[in-house]
C-alpha cells in the first residue's frame, strides 16, 4: 500500500504532499483493515513526513530544520499510537523495531538533503527494539543496516554473539554518497576515514568525527584509498548507514 493508494482512499481526510501524506493515515488504514492482520503477521511501515519537504501540521513553522524536527516529533507520536493500537488489538506477542534509512543535512560541510554526505548527521541513524512482553527497549551500541538480518536470525536462535548485540562487535564499514562519488568513507573499529573526492582530501577521525586530521603521507593515503575504492567496487554498498 503506497501513498497513491492511500490518497485514493483517504483524499480530503488527510493532507498530502509531493510523494507522501500525513503519517496519521497509516493508523487509520490499519484500523480499517484490522481483519487482515491475523498472527503470524509482518508489517513494514515507511513514514514520509520527515522526508523533504518535511511536512508538519504546524503550518507556522517555515524554517526547514525546525519543520524537520517538528515532523520527527509528529511521526514519533504516530508511531506510539500505532504501537498502542496493535498491542490492544493483537496482544503483546509483537516485536517492534524502529530505525531509519538516513539522516539529513542542513548546511553542514555545505550539504543539504541526504544525497551527498557520509558524515554522521546523514549516516548515523536510530535503531531501537521494543519487547512489549517485558516492557523493555534495547538499542545496540554500534551496528549497521548490513547486519540487520543477521541480528534477526541471531535473536530468533538465541545466539546474539553472532550479531551487533555482542559486546565485542566492532564496525567494519564502507560508505559512499548515494548518487555521486563526491565522498567515500571507511570505518575500521573506532576510526573513520572520509575522502572528499572533489578536493582530493582524506581525513582520519574518531567514530564520533572528533579529532579530525588530514592524511598527507602519500603511502598511507594510497593504502587507505585503495581499500575504500576496492571494497566499494566489489560490494555495492551505497549509502549504508551505521545504527545506534
From TrEMBL:
Gene3D superfamilies xref list: Alkaline Phosphatase, subunit A (3.40.720.10)
Domain of life the protein comes from: Bacteria
Pfam families: Sulfatase
Position of the signal peptide: none
The organism of origin for this protein: Leptospira ryugenii
InterPro entries referenced in this protein's UniProt entry, alphabetically: Alkaline_phosphatase_core_sf, Sulfatase_N
Annotated ranges, domain Sulfatase N-terminal: 14-136
Protein name: Arylesterase
